[in-house]
Here is the input.
Amino acid sequence: MYVELKNINKHFGNFKASDNVSFGIEKGKLIGLLGPSGSGKTTILRMIAGLENPDSGEIIIDGKVINNVPASKRGIGFVFQSYALFRYMTVFENIAFGLRVLKKSENEIKERVAELVKLIGLEGLENRYPSQLSGGQRQRVAFARALAPNPQLLLLDEPFAAIDAKVRQELRHWLKEMIAKLGVTSIFVTHDQDEAIEVADEIIITNKGRIDQIGKPLDVYSKPKTAFVASFFGQPSIFKDYNKFHSFDTIPNVDQAIVRPEFVKVTKKNEVQKFKNSAEEGVVTDVAFRGSGIEITVLVNGETLTARRSFDEPSISVGEKVDVFIYRLFVTVGNYAFLLENKSIREPIVVI
Amino acid sequence: MYKETTSSKIVKWSLIGISIAFVVLMLLLPLITVIAEAFKQGFDIYAKAVSDNYTTKAIWLTLEATLLAVIINTVFGLSAAWSLTKFQFKGKKILTTLIDLPVTVSPIIAGLIFLLTFGRQSPIYPLLQDWDIKIVFAVPGIVLATIFVTFPFISRELIPVLEARGNDEEEAAALMGAKGWTIFRKITFPHIKWAFLYGVVLCAARAMGEFGAVSVISGHLRGKTNTLPLHVEILFNEFQYVPAFAVSSILVMLAIVILIARSVIEYRGRKKI
Ligand SMILES: Nc1ncnc2c1ncn2[C@@H]1O[C@H](COP(=O)(O)OP(=O)(O)O)[C@@H](O)[C@H]1O
Ligand SMILES: [Mg+2]
Here is the structure.
């Protein structure tokens, strides 16, 4: 493991911002630290960078415990959520700052800055001040500035939070590409699940100062281990009594059932559906067009569920009676989450 | 824009009229009077009054006290503003409140405080005598009193500016290995420069014009502990009106220079943002 946190605890006054945080990161990976706002992501990043000291626990980078190494000596690149560009310096001077501190020669500095400016595609804007740049351009400059001294580890705090949706999409891909190209081990913080899933090689999920789950994006998405992770992703419908829907095993002590849109199949009464026999009747309460398809809200057995249909399926209108079939759902018992499949999927289909 | 009605026009112009009349009556007229009175008996008399030995001494003393007050309050103002905005420590609230004390305390009281602290009645007076240090009725007393009354000006300009922005530019620089002094010089100072200069100007203006505190502690020794405002008072009390106005005109001119400096700083400072 290149970066390792062992049993890190951190308090701010009485507030526990990090609760026994442990994880390891392999060299060259791009890691997403994902969790709701206030779950302690920034705190973890700041402790790795040396801007905060943990109350207890060890931070290890490249085999060395670095708790007592000052921030300035850790050689970590940091991209702040606010970018923290030096507002009285030009783009060139911003990127050159770390190199000047290292007392590089003027030629070396010019070369390296030119290289980075080219990398971030801002040629010709070297003499602009941060206030004369767009959000996306500032973000790139912050990225280049952090990379200039060739850090072995790059930390990015909500790198896309302050950028409008369209540019954000582009920048995500750009950043992923850049980091892959440079091979620098990186940790980025986000509260946006789509962002983490799209960009990260591996996701670490924070919840109330704890680490809930670590894994590949697909794994944390489809195999949540805790109640929190199960309900964090997707657009879950959450209700208590899942036994209203038949064909599910009954488990004792279930707190909640969590149903994601892709777990639900909504069909018109006259449409063919494989599991028609175990479907239940619902009433459509809302139909909304989304970029990716049509989102349908149905009231079934007293619960509101969300499902998706594609544009080329026959259209459904509000108030229509439809068949609703739930393929699977998560149930939570205490802090744990389990997946339950609809049993009728496994039963031989009997056509009468 | 809404259309101006006749009545709103009347309101507009009478308000503007009142303001102008007030400025003329209260500010411009007295200033013109000072200059006019100073030159009443011709330029030669004016020149003589201004180049009088006691007057030049008073000018130098005023400039000396002002310069020292600005330098010392710069050091203090920067450290106070920095520590109050960047660190958390016990007694922070008290320090913030204390900084404003000189503004709320009457200058006469300030003078008396120094008189009592360093004068004959003071328990440390024998000590000062042993070391041959003169404070009361001497230049150090004047300087101390001036520093006291101008004490909050620089820090009070800096604190809001430093507070308005977080630490992250400094943190970013520190992460790249920059040392404290480099960070201050390259990151923090450019940010506070205009507020700082503005504070310096205010501090200088107040230092030059200070009368009350300095009056108490100076002892009015002509040619020794007389600053310009004190000198004006003495001349006036001796019915030497032309010299009194002549010396006043120097203060007026210094004030105008400061006013211009202030406008320039404000203008440039605003443009920078
Ligand atoms: N310097 C600080 N002083 C006091 N509380 C803090 C400080 N930094 C963070 N916190 C608290 O710790 C919690 C976690 O903060 P943070 O790590 O910034 O969360 P996130 O980045 O996940 O939104 C928040 O409730 C925040 O109020
Ligand atoms: Mg944060």
Q: What stands out?
A: The first helix of chain B runs from residue 6 to 38. Residues 58 and 227 of chain B are 5 Å apart (CA to CA).
